[in-house]
Structure prediction request, 329 residues.
Amino acid sequence: MAHATATVDVMRPPAPAERGVDVYNLKLGMWVFLASEVMFFTALIGSYIVLRFGASPNPWAQPGKVLSIQITAFNTFLLICSSVSMVKAYASIADGNVKLMKVWLLVTILCGATFVGIQVYEYTHLIHHGFQPSGYREGSELAELAAANPVPYGAATAGLYGSTFFTMTGFHGFHVTCGVISMTYVFIRALRGKYSQQDHRGIEVIGLYWHFVDLVWIILFTIVYLI
Amino acid sequence: MRESPAGEHAHPTAGVYLRVAAVLVILTVIEVGVFYVPAFHPVLVPTLLILSAVKFTLVVMFYMHLKMDSRFFTFLFGGPLLLAMVMTMGLMFLFGAFVLKR
Prediction:
């Protein structure tokens, strides 16, 4: 009996659970991941700034000479549209409209896939005209233009220009592709009835990732294409 | 962390989402427009950076719901973002991006 009492005496009630920050793990994990992604893309953009502006007095290719602003502006518009459809999907499921959520998710997937398709077209077009990661290909149309007009086409810095351009936009395109694949997975889960008004964490988390991809493009479009 | 269903914070209405989208599109059009107007070239870099910063803020606040979500996320995302901005702007100043002659 004495032993039993002693046992009870040494037992402690569990410590009160910490309140935490009132968020669920999936969302917290995504925000931590996005914070790390900020640093990743900052490293790329920072390197670009150092290489581009550090190359002075050798001029960089003027914006619009090599890259197509119109196509990219349309791609930017497309990504904005996909962000809208993503928040509409989230708002739909938060309001309990599962059917509408599926429609908006599908629209988002299509916009994202089209963005990637246009980027592939852009790459194909650029490489065809002689712009590649190592600079202007010898004997290509762009190499001839750069030889005739070395300043506007940045003939001396073409290698840096090509490598930084394809690295930054390539990594962004890779992120969009990952987003489209993940979104397709979420869409399939949605078709199987995995999300409801009470639990739609997957939709919110993939939405955060998708908007982040949009954010990165907002910066890249300005820095790479317009400045 | 407490496991809880999503949607605890209120989200903006569809009208707000569409208005933000309209502003984003207009700002993009202005960005491209500014690029083609020679008069803006002396101040092109700061102008474009300000416009993209506004677009960035709108997406983060309204589409990523930081405006109405837990403050914790604001600090979690805002901390690295602030460092990134300071570093990027610092590099641009150091390497003369704001005195670029076009």
Notes: Chain B touches chain A through 53 residues (CB under 8 Å).
